[in-house]
Sequence to fold (738 residues):
Amino acid sequence: MISKNFSPLKKSLSSAYSLQLSELRNSIKRERVDGFLVTDINNVRYLTSFSGSSGILLFTKDEAFLITDFRYKEQAKIEVTGWDIIAGKGDTTKTIKSISKKTSINKLGFESSVTYDFFRKLSKTGISLKALSGLIEKQREIKKALEINLIREAVRRAESAFLEVKPYLKQGIREKSIAMRLEERLKKKGCRRIPFDVIVASGQNSAMPHARPTEKKLNKGDFVIIDWGGEAGGYFSDITRTMLIKGNNINKKKEIYKIILKANKKAISQVLPGIKLRDIDLYAREVIQKEGYGEFFGHATGHGVGLQVHESPRIAWNNNKKIKEDMVFTVEPGIYIPGLGGVRIEDMVAVKPDGPDIMTTLPKELDII
Amino acid sequence: MISKNFSPLKKSLSSAYSLQLSELRNSIKRERVDGFLVTDINNVRYLTSFSGSSGILLFTKDEAFLITDFRYKEQAKIEVTGWDIIAGKGDTTKTIKSISKKTSINKLGFESSVTYDFFRKLSKTGISLKALSGLIEKQREIKKALEINLIREAVRRAESAFLEVKPYLKQGIREKSIAMRLEERLKKKGCRRIPFDVIVASGQNSAMPHARPTEKKLNKGDFVIIDWGGEAGGYFSDITRTMLIKGNNINKKKEIYKIILKANKKAISQVLPGIKLRDIDLYAREVIQKEGYGEFFGHATGHGVGLQVHESPRIAWNNNKKIKEDMVFTVEPGIYIPGLGGVRIEDMVAVKPDGPDIMTTLPKELDII
Fold:
């Protein structure tokens, strides 16, 4: 392979990314810098729709440049409008210096997620610098209508792929084989990438929140956790369903499933602008704790989803920030009991003025196969 | 998905990673630091065999710590020996500060690839810092015997998967369908991850070095470039083959293929410790230039392969460093002619005292289907 993959987006999709720049120009005015250097590749994509793997943005209140290398010149021309494309061959910091001079930048903001290496090179240009943290990530928390549409399409593709694989789930089938089928279907549904390798974890494996598919066959009495996601126009989805294979100890297992389903529904029902993000985590956690399973729920309740499958905000007990309209995030409580197995139910919600718009449409009552 | 995937390695594989630490201790002595902080996750894996997605190393001449979070505690215990595992819940820089105090570190080396954010937090601890660039990456250029074995196994899996898909290649089959089959086979062969999405580029698409598989069907007269890789024990392989579908203009196409095959063989034949890396690029480039196609070969001739599918060294016209024994890299000249199509032949070589050990074993004479 000679370099990262090329996936030009249609212009029709790229309007999802427009307007963000003008918002950002307001926020950098508050930071008292004359220009802003965007180095995080997801943020570059967010602002320009450029999907290449090598690109940096530099903008001032009047001008906007995309600096990429010659390999991506053609792709940038197809994907990007409203930005001057500079396909440099040489040292990026030299290009930045020359643009800064031309556009009279005295103080340049830069993303603190950049490497120390790059920061050091940038320092040597003599431009006065100011580190800015999470400005664009915060903006990305609030989705535009077109972004929500793309995420909804990513959910639809994920669900449609799952429904085609579901009849195949039964005792004797290997975890890996299910995962491979699901990945194949996701691609057939139009997903150009999948956000992460599909997780299929059964029986003992389902008790590990980080399990990967193995050669293990689905056995009688197994919980089967399936955690997967789709993609559309660069945006991701993320879903988990847990099934049960007929077998022993069924009442205990039904009970655990019921608790997680209740925790999932309770937490989702409380989603509303103005509520603290940690409260959503606590609503789910309380249900589980009350039933005596608190120690078996070791992870946070959810996370934002968009151009990255894990992005801000985190739905966690220590996140004091408030829910805002048009956030999109997962709600995914789980219980993992060594020796018995695990259950997780993960849905995606978009926040609307009057409550949650539940994007996941797959049924979530216990499915005993 | 609640977090990155979990893939514990068997202890038997992890010995590939041992001994690197003692070498590194020598090189940091030269840098006059008392300790070294390793933040790049591939370097962490290289030194410890830890395959989780969250881990930092801190070592001195006598002690060695792996700092991870509670999610990875169990995994670290299984995978890592010889390092004290610290599964912190709190702020990583506080843990670093307390270890530095305990182990009497005055000056701490850190990897310059770390984020500026992390560097800033680290600065606030008051520890004297020194940025070190590419120390471990340079060490990773030279593969141990066990690493070469794993890469060879990754090549074997990639070749074996390809040979099972090859009979399926014919006029009328879609690029995407070929790519999906190959990915499925790679997983069946035991690859836990694949290094990059399989590239299948036919006809006009083959003229773009960055093409992705499309719904296009293989047509008469198409060049079909297939670029894919396998994995074994965390190590990758990377191969390209180009086939031709019977059709018009066949003599011209045969001629181009012949030039690339000659460039590939010529460059490989010159691989020897002590030769400059850029000379390998030039040997390939000269063959192509002499035939008048120089302008259609726009990328470098190759790249190192190991824990990352693209790693140091680059086999490029501007790399003045010398080839060393036990480097492993690709040799992949190509010609891409808009309107006609492209050809690339990519092999992997391990450098031995008397020349190249060609790891790729698939035939590379032109296959006309």
Q: What stands out?
A: The mean pLDDT of chain B is 91.
